[in-house]
Amino acid sequence: MTSMHTTRIATMALALAVAASVANAAPPDKIKVGLLFGLTGVASPIGPLQLDGAKLAIEEVNAAGGVTWGGAKVKVEYVSKDDETKPDVAIRRFRELINNDKVDVVVGQTLASITGALNEQVKKTPIAYFPVNVIALKTFEKDEMAPTAFAVHGCAYSAGYGSAAYIVDKLGYKKVAFFGPAYAFGQDQWRGAKAALEARGITAQYLESPVGTSDFTSYLLKVAEMKPDIVMLAHWGTDAINVLKQAYETGLKKNTRIWFDWMTNAFGSGVPAEAMEGVYSLMSWYHDLGTFEDKDVAASSKAFTEKFRKAFGYPPDPYSAMAYTGTLEALRALGNAQSSEPEKVAAAVAAKPDFKTMKGPATWRADHQPNFKYNAFVVVGKGPAERSDPKWDLVKVIGVYSGDDYLPSLKSLGY
């Protein structure tokens, strides 16, 4: 008997054993999901919106009877905690969810540094973990990502890369300034933007503000002195709202085109309409895709938006949408695995990596982030006269960023 034949027999035997185990596995009484977001602290503009997205996903699964498991339907419960946008608090809450609340899977995070800290915890104490925020590029490296962690919202590198590529390729600007914060979210965007610009023979002027800066006036005046055709702004949370307001108040918008790398409803609705008018941005997704050319995506986005509005009274943020998607993916993986054992859940994701979203079909990659048909949408801010709803009719979609180059290459991450 050849070694190849022996290997095939062994593989078949293992597959049959796993199948038998799944078939004979008694379904649990319930599935418990731990939801851990930054509900207070600097992440508070986004965390509550994520929580609502995750809750809606769980409510939908339960309305359909629950997760199919061993021929039965298993209901889903959740335990929600606030990580307070503090890594030490997040680690304590994470351990509480595992040790005290006995959750089967953890979904959450709003700040990249906290995801990084919890990714290290998952390596030590494996559990199925689905962070739904934009996380640090380094976390996706082969030796860094926990084997049972899957991050549906990708990394900030992509926001910078996609923004810079569109600025040059579609808008035709070549004199570019980049202004970001001295933390991972901004610095990863700079890495992406720099890579895209250098590939196009362009060197951008770079400016960085220290952590804790709230008055960006002096930095924005320096940007004005650079006289760029366009400035990329890469801030987040309350910093994002402040820098957008101050770019308007200092008059920078009058002489320089403004591009805000990663827009959300929370940021856009936090500034005057005049400050948003004419500002270009990337968005992970937008709640109004009524005129989008892909009618299936427009229809699925509309259906999701209507469900979310009915449940919570406001339109979903892109981060709400990704929390919803990540929660559904966590539950799909548990159902496919017919187990909450983290290794089996991870294997189930790898075995069935394709899934559907309001952004179109998506596929999990080897680095545990997905490639969507439409990775990001290009938008332009609406002024007061254009808005049908003064608070939520924020932007119009003018383009989309698709393709593998939006994500860092697997080779560059060690795969």
Structural class: alpha/beta
The geometry reads as globular
CATH level-four homologous superfamily name of the largest domain: Response regulator
CATH class of the largest domain: Alpha Beta
The main sheet comes to: 7 strands, mixed
Q: What count of domains describes the coordinates?
A: 2
Topology as H/E string? HEHEEEHEHEHEHEHEHHEHHEHHHEEEEE
Q: Tell me which CATH architecture of the largest domain applies here.
A: 3-Layer(aba) Sandwich
Q: How many helical stretches?
A: 14
In the CATH hierarchy, the third-tier topology of the largest domain is known as Rossmann fold
The count of β-strands is 16
- What percentage of amino acids are in beta strands? 15-25%
Task: Strand order, main sheet: write it out.
Answer: 8-7-9-10-11-15-16
Helix content: 40-55%
- The whole-angstrom Rg is 22 Å
Report mean pLDDT, rounded to a whole number. 93
Between the first and last Cα atoms, what is the distance in angstroms? 34 Å
Low-confidence segments, ≥5 residues, pLDDT <50?
1-24
